[in-house]
Amino acid sequence: MSLFHRTLAAVAALGSRIEWRSQRGQATTEYALVLLAAALVGVLVIGWATSGGGAAAVGRLFDSIIESVIDQV
């Protein structure tokens, strides 16, 4: 194998190792961001449901579900 081919192979191997190392924490970061987004949505839903208009809407929804179940029995 010529010096050119060995150098090219070494550079390619180094490049693949550098790419692998640079993506090492990517899955953990994505998981943390998904958890933060889910927590934010949860806080917003709880805030809406406990406020004046949201509480009334949840109450009406619950009443309609209970009435629908009772009607089917």
Which keywords apply here?
single chain, 73 residues, mainly alpha, rod-shaped
Describe this structure in words.
It is a single chain. The chain has 73 residues and is mainly alpha-helical. It has helices at 3-22, 26-50, 52-72. It contains three helices and no strands. The mean pLDDT is 79. The protein is rod-shaped. Helix 2 (26-50) packs across helix 3. It is 90% helix and 0% strand.
General form? rod-shaped
Biggest pleated-sheet summary? none
Record field, number of beta strands: 0
Q: What low-confidence regions span 5 or more consecutive residues with pLDDT below 50?
A: none
Helix/strand order, N-terminal first:
HHH
SSE-based structural type: mainly alpha
Strand-residue proportion? under 5%
The helicity comes to over 70%
DSSP summary: helix tally? 3
Which value, in Å, is the CA radius of gyration? 28 Å
End-to-end C-alpha gap: 82 Å
Mean pLDDT: 79
Summarize the structure.
The protein has helices spanning 3-22, 26-50, 52-72. It is an all-alpha fold and 73 residues long. The longest helix is centred in the middle third of the chain and has 25 residues, at 26-50.
Secondary structure elements and pairings:
Elements: H1 3-22, H2 26-50, H3 52-72
Helix pairs in contact: 2-3
